[in-house]
Amino acid sequence: MAVNAPPQYFKAEEEYRRAGTLQEQVDGLEKMLVLLPKHKASEKVQADLKSRLKDVKAQLQVEKSTPKKVKTFRFPRQGAGQVMLIGGPNGGKSRILKELTNAEPEVAPYPFTTREPMPGMMPWEDIVVQLIDTPPITDSLCEPYMPNLIRSTDAVLLCFDGSSDDAPEHTAEVIKQMADRKTLLSSQTGFVEDDFSMVRVRTLLTITRADDPGLADRLAFFEEICPEQKDLQRELVELDRPESVAALKNRIYELLGVMRCYTKAPGKPADYSSPFTLPIGSKVVDLAEKVHQEIGEKLKFAKIWPFGKSDMKTVGRDDVLQDRDLVELHT
Ligand SMILES: Nc1nc2c(ncn2[C@@H]2O[C@H](COP(=O)(O)OP(=O)(O)OP(=O)(O)O)[C@@H](O)[C@H]2O)c(=O)[nH]1
Ligand SMILES: [Mg+2]
User: Fold this and answer.
1) From 262's CA, which of 131, 195, 198, 317 has a CA 20 to 30 Å away?
2) What's the CA-to-centroid distance between 250 and ligand 1, angstroms?
3) Which atom of ligand 1 is nearest to the CA of 112?
């Protein structure tokens, strides 16, 4: 965007994307409008934001004045990030939730087993990641709450049954159904430039039962009928094999694009029990804000012990943190 928006603007944009309710969307858009620099080059973005705000306010009005008939689901984020399991029928979504978390979803060899979303927490090293299993998406079935859940999540596993001849068409249909609802399953998360109704969500094409000998032909057919798949990363999985399950867990963590940082108070021992997770590339001040808003405002400098090293370095507010840094914040 060639409008030179300040970093706070992009934070507000991310809050808006992650909004779970219409009211949160209104709040996010209003914040973005305030923070957007007002000049010639930003006129189009301003107009876009205003028209989006008008739409969302109208939807909010309708929501307030009509009694709730349709079911909605909301899963407040927990842990280091939230990942939705989506796909056509029988793609292995519930089996992934069952293998990776303590949740007990129904897993069955026939399609249309799952009727409602179900969350579970996946332990990974010293953090946890929230996974959400969902009902299948087809040309005739897409629960009305699904687009909003997907648009506001951190990442998606698009499940493809490697042993089924139907998987290419089923999976292409899921991508199409979401695109029709302005939600693009893609390599990166964020808004499509200058169109705040269109959201991209980082997606891993997760091929279950990937040891099946017919997989290569099915994938070749999928590539032929679904050009959009080239934007997606892939993971081949056989959930009967523990090392494949472990590799999937690593891939899910990587997909979140976060790092862990540990903190210590001056003169106190390090707290390695509950790391803070931040987007890769975050600065010292971002960690300070996460610890406490006031610490973020008053932060003067920090001491950092890089992971596995005993030498300490003193850094400023805007220095970039590395995965597993131990940080002592000074105000
Ligand atoms: N061997 C093996 N079986 C799998 C794998 N993934 C899924 N399955 C089996 O495939 C069947 C369907 O899996 P589910 O997890 O119920 O599929 P789903 O995507 O949740 O299906 P719906 O809820 O109907 O949309 C079950 O019998 C699973 O055990 C895998 O990687 N390996
Ligand atoms: Mg299921």
Assistant:
1) 131
2) 20
3) 24
Rg (alpha carbons) of the chain, rounded to whole number = 22
159 lines ligand 1 (CB under 6 A): yes
116 or 3, higher pLDDT: 116
CATH number for 259-330: choose from 3.40.1280.10, 2.40.30.130, 3.10.20.30, 3.40.50.720: 3.10.20.30
CA distance 47 to 54: 11
Rounded distance from Cα 107 to ligand 1 centre (Å): 6
Across the range 186-210, mean pLDDT stands at: 88
pLDDT for the residue numbered 62: 83
Closest residue by Cα to residue 186 from 208, 174, 203, 164: 203
Atom of ligand 1 nearest to the CA of 107: 16
DSSP code string of 268-295: S--EEEEEEEEETT-BHHHHHHHH-HHH
Which three-class secondary structure state does DSSP give residue 97?
A: helix
DSSP 109: S
Q: Can you give the pLDDT at residue 99?
A: 97
Locate all alpha helices (DSSP H) within the chain, ordered by sequence: 7-17, 22-35, 43-65, 93-100, 146-151, 167-180, 215-225, 242-256, 284-291, 293-298
Q: Flag whether pLDDT at 77 surpasses 90.
A: no
Given ligand 1 and candidates 97, 164, 208, 240, which is best to mutate, with the most ligand atoms within 8 Å of its CB? 208
Q: What's the predicted TM-score (pTM) here? A: 0.87
Where do we find the tokens 């200058």?
A: 194
Tell me, which fold does domain 82-256 have in CATH?
Rossmann fold (3.40.50)
Protein residue whose Cα sits closest to atom 7 of ligand 1: 92
Which residue's entry shows tokens 């959201």?
199
